[in-house]
Amino acid sequence: MAALKLFSLFHLNLAFSSIEEEQRRQVMERCYWPLLRLARKYRLPIGIEATGFTLETAAALDPAWIEELRRLTNEGICELIGSGYCQVIGPLVPAEVNAANLRLGHQVYEKLLSFRPTTALINEQAYSAGMIQHYLDAGYRAIVMEWNNPAYAHPEWDAQWRYLPQIACGHHGEKFR
After folding, report:
1. Nearest 5°: phi and psi at 121?
2. Average pLDDT of the chain to the nearest whole number
C-alpha cells in the first residue's frame, strides 16, 4: 500500500446548539483565529468547512477574519469545504430544501470569498444516495464524510478501505469519485 496521505478538515459551526449567541465572538477569538494563525505561520494545508450562515455570522462579528480566510484560500494554504447555507439533515427534508440550501450557501461563499468551493462535507454525516444529484447539480466535484458509521453498518467491508478514496453512487448511476 502507498504511503498514507492525511488531510485535516476543521468543521466550523457558529449555529452549534451548545454555543450561545453571546459566545460566538469568544469562539472566533479562541478557536477560529488560532486556526487561521496556525495555517498562516506554518503554511499548514488545511480544509476549513463552514456553512454560509457561519461565514455570514463571522463576517458580522469580525470582518478581518473573513479577509484572512480569503487570503489563505487564495494563496492555496487553506481550502474551503462547502456544505450549504445551514446544516440540513438532507435525507430528512424535501429535495427542494436541499437544492435551495446548497444554492444559498454558494451565494454566501461567492459574496464573502469570491468563489465557490468544489468539495462539500455531507451535513451531519447523514448520507443517502438521493443526495448525490443535489451536490452534483450545485457544482461540487467531491464530497467528504466520515468512515466509521457507514462501515459499522457494513461489517463485510475491508477495514483497509478506510484509507482509500471511495465512490459515492446515486440512484440513477450518478457518482462522485
Report:
1. -90, 130
2. 92
